[in-house]
C-alpha cells in the first residue's frame, strides 16, 4: 500500500476514531501517515468521514480516540489557532467586511508581523494567484473563481507547511474547476507544501494527487497512487467509485496460481485475476473496465456473446451498452478512430477481455 | 401598485377599497402624533384649536409653552435673560432636570442592555447551548409580562436590597426592559452569520478574543446598533417603572409629563411631545443612515 514509515511521517493519524453521538462511529480506526510535501486526497461519498478527518486535523473537531500527530508532535490538545495549518474552506469563508488585502494581512497581523513585511508578503501572495490588482476590492465584488484564488492566497500567505482544502472547487463551473486544479497542483509543486485535499469528485482526485485515500463508511478502503487506484482496485467499492466499471456476479469454481475460474449465473465461464475472493464455492464480483473490453474478437481467453442494446455518440468515443452474461448494463467504450467497429443496435457480436483485466472482487 | 389592464370590475373596486383602507390605517396611526404639533403652539391654555388658530391668525399662535418648559421650576423666571438666567434654568428648571435624568438613565441603561443582550444572543445562537428555547423565553419575558407586574416586583425586590429610589435602581430596571430588544435584533443578525468565518479566523491564528473583536463584532454591529436604539427608546419613554422605583431626584421626562397632567394640565406637555417626536425622528434617521452606511462599507450589501 506504499505506507510511509513512522520516522519520516509529517502528518499521522493513529487509531483515530470519531463519534458525534457516542454511539455510531463516523470515523472507524483511521491509520494514515503521509510524508512532507505530499498531495494526499481524501475521496469518498458524502457521509464517509473524509471531512470529519480534515476537521480533526484542523482542530475544529476532537478525536474520540487515537492520536493525531503533526511533524512528530501530538496535536490532539492544541487549539486550532495555535496549529499553524492553512485551510481553504468550501465556501471560501472570506471576511466580507475586509478588502482582499486586509483578508490576506489578517493572519500576518495576528502573528504580529511588522507592517512592511506584511505588505510585502500580501503582495507576493496576490501575485502568486495572479490577483495583483484586486487588493482594494471586497470579496462581494469578486467572481467565484477570484474569491477562490483569494482564499487560496490567504491560506498560503503565512507560509504554513501544511494546507488543508475542503472541496475548494465545488462551487466553480467545470472549465474553471479544471483550470484551478492545475493551478493548485503547480502551487503545491513550486512551494513544496504538504496538502490534504478533500473532494467527492474522483476526476479531481486522480488529476491532482500523489496518493488518494478512498473513504467509505468511516474506513479507508484503499490508499494508493491514482493509477494504482484505477487499474488495481482492491475491492468492489473502490472499483465502482473510481471510474466506470462493469460488474458480473459469479461463483469461484477453481484456482490456479493468481488466476481463478469463475462460473457466471447463466452457466458461462471466465478466467479472472484473484484479488479478494479466493476459496472455491464463494461468490465473487468480476470487475472489468469498459476500455479493456475488445469487440469483435474471439481469440482472447475470455470471449463471449454480446448483444448491442444502445449506442451513444460522444465524439472521441462511442459508448456501447450491451447484454453480456445477463448483465444488460455492460458498457464498452469504442474509440472513434479509423479502426472503429461498425455496430448497430440489436446486432449480436463477440466481446472478450484478458484474464488480468477481469478482477475478482468481494461481492456487493 | 398599478392596476393591470385586464382587471375585472370587481378587481377595480377592490383595488380602490384597498387604497382607502391603507390611507385610513395610516391616518389612524399618524394623526394623533401630528395633531399635537400645531396644538403645542396654541396661545390659549387649552387642548383645542381656537377660532384664531383655524383662521391661521398669527395671534392665535405663540411659543409660550416652549418658554414655560424653561421657566417652570426656576427660582427667578422673571429676571432678564442673561447668563445668570440661563444657568438658573439649567440648574433648576423642572423639564431640563427631567431631560438630564432621562439622558443619564437612558445612556447607562442602553450600555448595560446592549452588552448583556449581545452576550446572551451570542450564547443562545450556539448550537451546543442546552435549553435554548426556555432560556430565550425567560430572557424575553420582561417584554411580555405586563409592565405593572414587572414594576411592582422590581419595587419590592429593589427596596429589599436598597436599590429603590436610586439612579442605579432605575438604570438596572430599564436595562432589564431593554435587554429583550437587543437579544431579538442581535439574534436576527446572527441567523445570517456564516460560522465558517470564525473557523477561518481561528485557522488563520486568531485567538477567540481577537476573532470576536475583529470578525464577529463588526459583522453583527448593525444588529447591535438597532437593539441599542430600541433599548434607549424603551428607557426614554418608560413611566411605570419610574413611578415605582424612582425617587423625586430621578424624575424623567415621562414622569414629569405624568406630574404635569395630574397637577396643572397645560399645553406645555404638548410642546414636550413635539420636541420628543422631532428628537425621535432625528435619532432614528441618524442611526439608520449610519447603519446602512456601515453595512455598505462592510460590503454586506452590494453597491
Explained architecture:
The complex is a heterodimer of chains A (about 375) and B (about 300). By secondary structure, chain A is an alpha+beta fold. In chain A, about 25% of the residues lie in helices and about 35% in strands. Chain A contains 8 helices and 20 strands. In chain A, the strands form 4 sheets. Chain A has a 6-stranded mixed sheet, with helices on both faces. Chain A has a 5-stranded mixed barrel with strand order 11-12-13-20-14. In chain A, helix 2 (about 100-110) runs parallel beside helix 4 (about 145-155). The two termini of chain A are about 25 Å apart. The model of chain A has no long low-confidence stretch (mean pLDDT about 85). Helix content of chain B is about 75%, strand content about 0%. Chain B is globular. The relative contact order of chain B is 0.11. Chain B has helices at about 10-35, 35-40, 50-55, 65-70, 85-90, 95-125, 130-145, 145-160, 165-190, 195-205, 210-235, 240-245, 255-265, 270-295. Classes of the chains: A alpha+beta (about 375), B mainly alpha (about 300). The interface between A and B is medium-sized, with 30 and 24 residues.
How is this structure best summarized?
Chain A is α+β, with helices and mostly antiparallel strands and 364 residues long.
Write the layout of secondary structure elements.
The complex is a heterodimer of chains A (364) and B (303).
Chain A: E1 9-19, E2 25-35, E3 39-43, H1 50-58, E4 65-70, E5 73-74, E6 86-88, H2 100-110, H3 115-128, H4 144-156, E7 162-166, H5 174-191, E8 194-199, H6 202-208, E9 211-216, E10 219-224, H7 226-231, H8 236-241, E11 246-256, E12 259-264, E13 269-274, E14 283-288, E15 294-295, E16 302-313, E17 317-324, E18 327-335, E19 348-353, E20 359-361
Parallel strand pairs in A: 3-8, 3-9, 6-7, 7-8, 13-20
Antiparallel strand pairs in A: 1-2, 1-4, 4-5, 9-10, 11-12, 11-14, 12-13, 14-20, 15-19, 16-17, 16-19, 17-18
Chain B: H1 9-34, H2 36-39, H3 51-54, H4 64-71, H5 83-92, H6 94-124, H7 132-144, H8 147-161, H9 167-191, H10 196-203, H11 208-236, H12 240-245, H13 253-263, H14 268-297
Helix pairs in contact in B: 4-14, 6-9, 6-11, 6-13, 7-9, 9-11, 10-11, 11-14
Amino acid at each position: 500500500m506504499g505506507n510511509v514509515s513512522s520516522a519520516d511521517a509529517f502528518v499521522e493519524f493513529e487509531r483515530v476514531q470519531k463519534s458525534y453521538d457516542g454511539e455510531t462511529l463516523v470515523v472507524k480506526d483511521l491509520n494514515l501517515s503521509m510524508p512532507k510535501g505530499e498531495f494526499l486526497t481524501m475521496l469518498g461519498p458524502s457521509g464517509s468521514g473524509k471531512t470529519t478527518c480534515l476537521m480533526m486535523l484542523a482542530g475544529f473537531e476532537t478525536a474520540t480516540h487515537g492520536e493525531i500527530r503533526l511533524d512528530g508532535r501530538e496535536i490532539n490538545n492544541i487549539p486550532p489557532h495555535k496549529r499553524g495549518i492553512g485551510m481553504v474552506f468550501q465556501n471560501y469563508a472570506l471576511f466580507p467586511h475586509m478588502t482582499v488585502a486586509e483578508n490576506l494581512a489578517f493572519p500576518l497581523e495576528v502573528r504580529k508581523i511588522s507592517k512592511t513585511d506584511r505588505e510585502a508578503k500580501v503582495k507576493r501572495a496576490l501575485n502568486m494567484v495572479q490577483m495583483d490588482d484586486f487588493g482594494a476590492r471586497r470579496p462581494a465584488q469578486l467572481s467565484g473563481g477570484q474569491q477562490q484564488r483569494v482564499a487560496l492566497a490567504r491560506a498560503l500567505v503565512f507560509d504554513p507547511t501544511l494546507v488543508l482544502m475542503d472541496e475548494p472547487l465545488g462551487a466553480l463551473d467545470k472549465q474553471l474547476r479544471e483550470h484551478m486544479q492545475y493551478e493548485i497542483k503547480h502551487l503545491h509543486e513550486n512551494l513544496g507544501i504538504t496538502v490534504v485535499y478533500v473532494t467527492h469528485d474522483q476526476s479531481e482526485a486522480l488529476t491532482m494527487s500523489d496518493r488518494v485515500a478512498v473513504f467509505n463508511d468511516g474506513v479507508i478502503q484503499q490508499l494508493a497512487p491514482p493509477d494504482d487506484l484505477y487499474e488495481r482496485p482492491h475491492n468492489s467499492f473502490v472499483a465502482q467509485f473510481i471510474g466506470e466499471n462493469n460488474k458480473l456476479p459469479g461463483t469461484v469454481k477453481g484456482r490456479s496460481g493468481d488466476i481463478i475460474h469463475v462460473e457466471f449465473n447463466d452457466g458461462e465461464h471466465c478466467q479472472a485475476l484473484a484479488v479478494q475472493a479466493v476459496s472455491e464455492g464463494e461468490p465473487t464480483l468480476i470487475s472489468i473496465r469498459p476500455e479493456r473490453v475488445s469487440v469483435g474478437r474471439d481469440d482472447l481467453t475470455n470471449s463471449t456473446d454480446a448483444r448491442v442494446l444502445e449506442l451513444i455518440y460522444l465524439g472521441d468515443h462511442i459508448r456501447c451498452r450491451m447484454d453480456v452474461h445477463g448483465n444488460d448494463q455492460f458498457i464498452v467504450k469504442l474509440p472513434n478512430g479509423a479502426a472503429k467497429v461498425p455496430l448497430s443496435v440489436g446486432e449480436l457480436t463477440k466481446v472478450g477481455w484478458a484474464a488480468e483485466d477481469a478482477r475478482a472482487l468481494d461481492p456487493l | 401598485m398599478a392596476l393591470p389592464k385586464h382587471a375585472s370590475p370587481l378587481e377595480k373596486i377592490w383595488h380602490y377599497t384597498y387604497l382607502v383602507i391603507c390611507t385610513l390605517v395610516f391616518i389612524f396611526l399618524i394623526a394623533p402624533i401630528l395633531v399635537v404639533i400645531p396644538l403645542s403652539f396654541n396661545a390659549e391654555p387649552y387642548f383645542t384649536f381656537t377660532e384664531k388658530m383655524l383662521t391661521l391668525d398669527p395671534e392665535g399662535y405663540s411659543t409660550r409653552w416652549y418658554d414655560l418648559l424653561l421657566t417652570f421650576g426656576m427660582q427667578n423666571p422673571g429676571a432678564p435673560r442673561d447668563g445668570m438666567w440661563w444657568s438658573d434654568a439649567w440648574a433648576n428648571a423642572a423639564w431640563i432636570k427631567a431631560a438630564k435624568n432621562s439622558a443619564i438613565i437612558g445612556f447607562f441603561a442602553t450600555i448595560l442592555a446592549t452588552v448583556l443582550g449581545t452576550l446572551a444572543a451570542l450564547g443562545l445562537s450556539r448550537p451546543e447551548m442546552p435549553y435554548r428555547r426556555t432560556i430565550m423565553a425567560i430572557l424575553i419575558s420582561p417584554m411580555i409580562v405586563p409592565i405593572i407586574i414587572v414594576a411592582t416586583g422590581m419595587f419590592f425586590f429593589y427596596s429589599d436590597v436598597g436599590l429603590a429610589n436610586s439612579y442605579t435602581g432605575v438604570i438596572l430596571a430599564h436595562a432589564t426592559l431593554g435587554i429583550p430588544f437587543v437579544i431579538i435584533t442581535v439574534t436576527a443578525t446572527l441567523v445570517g452569520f456564516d460560522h465558517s468565518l470564525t473557523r477561518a479566523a481561528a485557522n488563520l491564528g486568531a485567538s477567540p478574543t481577537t476573532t470576536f473583536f475583529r470578525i464577529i463584532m463588526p459583522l453583527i454591529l448593525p444588529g447591535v446598533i438597532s437593539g441599542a436604539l430600541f433599548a434607549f427608546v424603551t428607557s426614554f419613554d418608560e413611566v411605570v417603572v419610574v413611578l415605582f422605583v424612582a425617587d423625586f431626584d430621578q424624575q424623567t421626562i415621562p414622569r414629569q409629563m405624568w406630574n404635569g397632567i395630574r397637577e396643572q394640565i397645560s399645553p406645555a406637555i404638548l410642546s414636550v411631545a413635539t420636541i420628543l417626536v422631532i428628537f425621535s425622528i432625528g435619532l432614528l434617521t441618524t442611526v439608520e443612515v449610519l447603519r446602512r452606511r456601515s453595512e455598505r462599507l462592510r460590503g454586506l450589501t452590494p453597491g
